[in-house]
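Continuing the batch. This is chain 6 of the set; chains 1 through 5 are on the previous pages. Same settings as before, nothing changed between runs. Recording input and output for traceability.
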Amino acid sequence: MAFPATRMRRLRRTKALRELVRETSLSPAELIQPAFVVAGEGVREDVESMPGIERFSISELVAEATDVAAAGVGALLLFGVPSAKDESASGAYDDEGVVQMAVRALKGAHPDLTVITDVCLCEYTSHGHCGFVRDGEVDNDLTVELLAKTAISHAEAGADAVAPSDMMDGRVGTIRHQLDEEGHAGVPIISYSSKYASAFYGPFRDAAESTPGFGDRRSYQLDPANADEAVREAKLDLEEGADMLMVKPATPYLDVVRRVKDATRAPLAAYHVSGEYSMLKAAAANGWIDERAAVLETLTSIRRAGADAIVTYYAKEAAAWLR
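Output for chain 6:
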């Protein structure tokens, strides 16, 4: 028998020894901070269901980006909340839309900050669905055309990467083709390849004002019971030209993170979503958990599962804890 000659605790005895054999790293460079931008001047609006998270007007977002960068976080994922919405989501691909103007301002003030834009229509449609609705259903192919227009407008504004999150079939290939045709061959696509119809998105929908006005998103987002399907989606997106993949949400789908990573070996992000964030905040506010320890353990678990990068509302806080 190995014991007592083999004693696993020997390498756990001191902090220095534990760090020497640590298998998984977590650093600010691996974190991406989501941010909500709204129209107006001097606006900072609390998101009630997400303690510590605010919606920013453009000038305030630029100021917040200074703090994000100072914490060591190198990337923002930008979501727009327009002042007006319509059935065709025209604000999404307006060259003077809130995201497009925010991208220009951010890149002017923080040229070294990586600005990633969410490419979806849900924040811009009057009905809250992620695409153009025809006869009560989201029209896949027409939506893909609008998504490509949106991605082009973001790239022309100076976005460093575009991240389609809509889950329409074929959108990555169309966006890649249009970016290349319009002179943006160097702009990568970070595809939400495995985005589930999750119950953990509620606080985000408050922040982005994107709750569907009817029905739900189960006809285009993944069934939470399926993992093989997530791998198929990821492989298809890679074939269509995705440069990086994403699994969303993160902690309830760590098995999917691992399966997608093992199946593709492609760069992979995981989105630690609003509901995950708000649960930790609520438990911490009640004194039920040590917030810092629980958050860093959670983020480490996402990295351990195979994520190269983590989108999390805790990015700025966690980066400060890690430095």
